[in-house]
Batch of 2 targets.
Target 1
Amino acid sequence: MPKVLIIGACGQIGSELTFKLKDIYGSENVVASDIGYNNLDVVNSGIFEIVDAQDYNSVKVCVDKHNIDTIYLMAAMLSATGEKYPMKAWNLNMDSLFHVLNLAKDGFIKRIFWPSSIAVFGPTTPKVLTPQHTIMEPSTVYGITKQVGERWCEYYHKKYGVDVRSLRYPGIISWKTMPGGGTTDYAVEIYHQALLDAHYDCFLSEETELPMMFMEDAIKATLDLMQAPSEALTVRSSYNLAAISFTPKEITEAIKKHIPNFDISYSPDFRQQIADSWPKSIDDSKAREDWNWHPDYDLKKMTSEMIEQLRKKYAKPVTE
Ligand code: AKB
């Protein structure tokens, strides 16, 4: 049974990963951690520690205290916030990765999950069915940190035998915890606003097509990759991963099937340029070949689930 530490457990993906890992390995084998008590559902769900991902000693103390052998490093500054604070994004995204890679290199932990992103690709990358191996000239700070991170992951694996595994997440859509600071966040906000106001003002233009994925699929992919036999993995930088691609116009049509009076307006801002530099769709055949990846959710199924869950969430009294 692995002893797991999630760093960044209060965030959008970290929180759901924490709940799922507790289901699988038992609450006593999973330590959630973050820089603050930012998600009370996570904090109150079992063992929780304050860990500063940028401070090697803070991470090491927690690893020693709980005999951790596996780390999911989910703390990161995403694309939109990264453009506002370039050096903070660089420092957080790189320092935290080096700390866990070095813990593994020095034998303190055995396995690492580190998320990369479609942001590793840039304006010169082929946009449709972007291949696993292709031109990568990211134009955002976030994308640069992810691309550099991938190189270091592969280097630590080849040079020191570190068992680090990674996925290039597309935009992740979920109803439990809000995303923060990403360019794909519109695809979560739109569901909330559809239910609250029947209107959404989108910060991307109507034809901006981006790769996306429902949270259930993202968690499944993460756990399948982490449980795959080491010999099966031929990619130690980061695997392309895909499920759905859609535009703001297409997600609006899908939402209108449930909320017919929903309407959308468009006010593209600085995030448009980021989105325009990313692929429209991804070729994830390596992930399918190596560890049998396949997604379960399309736009229609995801939209039904999002609307159903958010309806329940908003129907609950505020005191709950
Ligand atoms: C972002 O929009 O920055 C992230 C990502 C695609 O990695 N959701």
Target 2
Amino acid sequence: MITLKSRFLRIDFLISNSLKTYKAIPFLYLCPMAQKEDNLKDIISHAKEYGFVFPSSEIYDGLSATYDYGQLGSELKNNIKSYWWKSMVQMHDNIVGIDSAIFMHPTTWKASGHVDAFNDPLIDNKDSKKRYRADVLLEDHIEKIRQKINKEVAKGLKRFGDNFNEEEFLKTNPNVLRNQTKIDDIENRMRETLGNNDLEGVYDLIVDLAIACPISGSKNWTEVRQFNLMFSTELGSVAGDAAKIYLRPETAQGIFVNYLNVQKTGRMKIPFGIAQIGKAFRNEIVARQFIFRMREFEQMEMQFFVRPGEEMKWYEYWKEQRINWHNKLGLGQENYRFHDHIKLAHYANAASDIEFNFPMGFKELEGIHSRTDFDLKQHEEHSGKKLQYFDPELNKNYVPFVVETSIGLDRMFLAVLSTSFKNEKLEDGSERSVLSLPPALAPYKVAVMPLTRKDGLPEKAKEVLDTLKFDHNCQYDEKDSPGKRYRRQDAIGTPYCVMIDHQTLEDNTVTIRDRDTMLQDRVAISDLEGIIRKKVSMTTLLK
Ligand code: GAP
């Protein structure tokens, strides 16, 4: 149960005992704001209980780091995809979408550098037998030092109140300066060692910083080794290296190899983008934290092709566009931050992550990368085909540069689910679990319910449902008491419940209950669709 800290005025409604009429009894109570505690376990069990996410092949005890999306999970996932696709493709007349194959010619991955360089530096702890990514151990260590700086800032704020000048404080406070120097030193050494594939240097850095295994506390480490993350399989019936193909580790290469097809057939002019949503596969060393790091996952990627030399302008542009896309969902601006990469991927000249405040802390949600002309040039070289663009304004041919935005759909799902999930204690002593999902993303937009299963109310409810189902995903629910049914809909994040009662039969009005305020209104059936649309429409997010 999440403890409740923040408080504000709220009005709730109680259902009268007779359950024939609904009496609004306003009262004050403590409102739970989502708290960033370690509530991942609660989220996982809620996701399973209500059909959002199941462990894959569970009847065989599951498969590590593989999950299946259930009946509600796939609806939520589709809505996230739709928000991304609409904002990328539909809202930009210079971006188009494709759907390329998961299997690609094996030379693709030689050209892209994935065969030789898509490695993670791994290190094992000899006592706990746990395996870690060496760069993640180092980044976690830096984060701990950063927390110390944050604590100093909090102390300063407490001490000086309104007179506190954070910028000045960060430049002058001796403790902050000492810790910042430590961070700078570590980052410099990381850049040097990781950037130059100096695995011994990475090992020395871990030892010098006295980094211990988070499980055993032991500092008894193996050497650092490289581990390729691609899954391979064999094409057809031929065995051996000749038939070896890979499951794509990113969707981006399907876009690069189709760059000229799309540019020519779509008569695209630079700058233009190609977007794609699809599965990607990585044999992650440490796959954990529910759907955060999986071996099979989905990406939503967009490659934006630009003139050489203009890539930094577009890199900044897409950083801003993407953070705006996130902010519009209303999950809280304070839950996002940018993190510039120290160790750049082999293809990038600039890269930044949008990190999200997941239940386990700030972690990467999306990457924005300036990929230069690396990929297209490599494919030119390996395929022997020209992948150039004739720029009529400049009157010359060139290989375009690329700025990429790449977001993990499953991580976005976790961001939405974890921020929306709350256990609330109401003033009357009862509790409710609620998913305050952004209404446009909710699996069901409205639940239609007859007050009782007699007197023609179910028939009337189905009539109402029939008028709504063309525009909205609706659920019909007649089992159990109205209170229980409301709780059930709260728990799956349905923004509205519509109750058909005896008055409906007389005057064609219904009550409509709001998930978040729990307020009920009596409205005409003819106004229902408009009221629901206003709240759940994706248009407001896209504008
Ligand atoms: N095409 C560039 C690319 O793939 P990336 O930073 O390796 O860049 C992009 O991946 C996004 O894909 C990440 O920000 C993350 O959201 C998601 N992602 C990467 N590995 C993942 C995994 N093992 N499980 C779930 N999502 C993952």
